[in-house]
From TrEMBL:
UniProt source species: Rhabdornis inornatus
Gene name, Swiss-Prot/TrEMBL: Kcnk18
Lineage top rank: taxon: Eukaryota
Domain Potassium channel stretches: 101-159, 294-364
Protein name: KCNKI protein
Primary location class: membrane
Family to which this protein belongs: Belongs to the two pore domain potassium channel (TC 1.A.1.8) family.
Organism lineage string: Eukaryota, Metazoa, Chordata, Craniata, Vertebrata
Length: 390
């Protein structure tokens, strides 16, 4: 038979890592491509729209000019009336009148708008004006929001795995430290001896297999009836060996000679990775206080960095803005002067939304457990006690 050269182990491990990371990278890359395509679409539609002066805008300018001309030299007399009229006039004004579409709907501005759409933040300071833009915004959100939640769930599994492993490692380390403090040398050695004796007893008490039983009794003389039992035993052993030996599948032999046929196995593993999305978040069992502390520290780090390019923000305002963003509330009361710089902050938003998503999932699980306890307690109280005869 001709010997076939097998690929080196380094290449196989790289392939395994690639196919393990492929589902996660696929989701993130698809979201990035979706955001860039949306930015190109909205910048073309909303940025190139014709600016027409409406009748409402003409009336607004006329009223503003009238108030400015009728303002007397003595400002203190008409100051209160002037402030009320100006406030009422600007409340009726449309912000679109004072926006240059080319500046607002540049590529980076449109990309920022797309991020606010599929993350469901929606600050409200940027929104489509044209009819086609509104229809496309609804269609874009219809596919973008599920894709965003899919990415959040997938990346949430990775964060949940990291958090659970760190929490378990910390618990193991804490238990080892406590055990080393409580356990002295003599008592520990005695316990180890008792454990080893118990394990040896367990090993010695294991049942013998059929082969061992026949070998131990091979020196004994058997009668003719007993020989038949031995033949039966040998037949059972042969059948047992057929079942217990690893079945040499012909496909495995083909994989060793022709590695291209192993793709079906790889594809099945990738499909299993897709099927396991959301399982780690469901299995996560971390104290909710720890998650609240992680969210507080995460937002505090961003609140310390954000005022560096947003000069009108202090730490408290930035903390409030980050919390409103990560919880996808997005009032829009705090506006950004430099959305281009904030786009580089989008990775922070993604990870932060995943952390908040995990915290909400943990809180939801805790609430379900609490409701179950309350309902079972109320049911036990309402069930009448059985009256037994004396």
């Amino acid at each position: 038979m001709a010997t076939t050269s097998q690929p080196p182990r380094g290449k196989t491990t790289c392939k395994k890592i690639f196919w393990a990371v492929f589902p996660h990278a696929c989701f993130i890359l698809s979201l990035v491509i979706y955001a860039f395509l949306g930015a190109l679409m909205f910048s073309h539609i909303e940025g190139t729209r014709e600016v027409t002066i409406s009748e409402e805008y003409r009336t607004f300018l006329q009223n503003l000019t009238y108030l400015a001309r009728n303002l007397s030299d003595n400002v203190t007399e008409n100051e209160k009336m002037f402030k009320n009229d100006i406030r009422e006039l600007f409340n009726r004004a449309d912000p679109v009148w004072f926006i240059n579409p080319e500046e607002r709907w540049s590529f980076f501005g449109s990309l920022f708008f797309c991020c606010t759409v599929f993350t469901t933040v929606g600050y409200g300071n940027t929104y489509p004006v044209t009819r086609i833009g509104k229809y496309l915004c609804m269609l874009y959100a219809l596919f973008g929001i599920p894709l965003m939640f899919l990415v959040l769930t997938d990346m949430g599994d990775i964060l949940a795995t990291v958090l659970s492993k760190c929490y378990n490692k910390f618990g193991e380390l804490q238990s080892k430290i406590l055990a080393s403090k409580l356990c002295s040398g003599s008592t520990c050695s005695k316990r180890n001896e008792l454990k080893s004796r118990a394990q040896s007893k367990i090993v010695n008490n294991e049942p013998l297999t059929i082969m061992e039983l026949l070998k131990s009794q091979s020196g004994m003389k058997w009668g003719p009836a007993k020989y038949r039992n031995v033949e039966l035993f040998e037949m059972l052993i042969a059948r047992e060996n057929e079942n217990t030996q690893p079945a040499r599948n012909k496909s495995m032999e083909r994989w060793s000679s022709c590695p291209e046929l192993a793709r079906e196995k790889t594809v099945s593993r990738v499909i299993e990775n897709f099927d396991k999305i959301g399982k780690e978040v469901e299995k996560l069992d971390v104290p909710i206080v720890l998650m609240v502390l992680v969210i507080f520290l995460y937002i505090s780090c961003a609140a310390g960095i954000l005022p560096r390019w947003e000069k009108k923000m202090d730490f408290q305002e930035a903390f409030y803005f980050c919390f409103i963003t990560l919880t996808t509330i997005g009032f829009g009361d705090t506006k950004l002067e430099h959305p281009k710089f904030f786009l580089f902050f989008s990775l922070y938003i993604m990870i932060g939304m995943e952390i908040v998503f995990i915290a909400f999932k943990l809180g939801q699980n805790r609430l379900i457990v609490l409701y179950k306890k309350v309902i079972s307690f109320c049911a036990e109280k309402n069930v009448p006690s059985k009256i037994y005869p004396k």
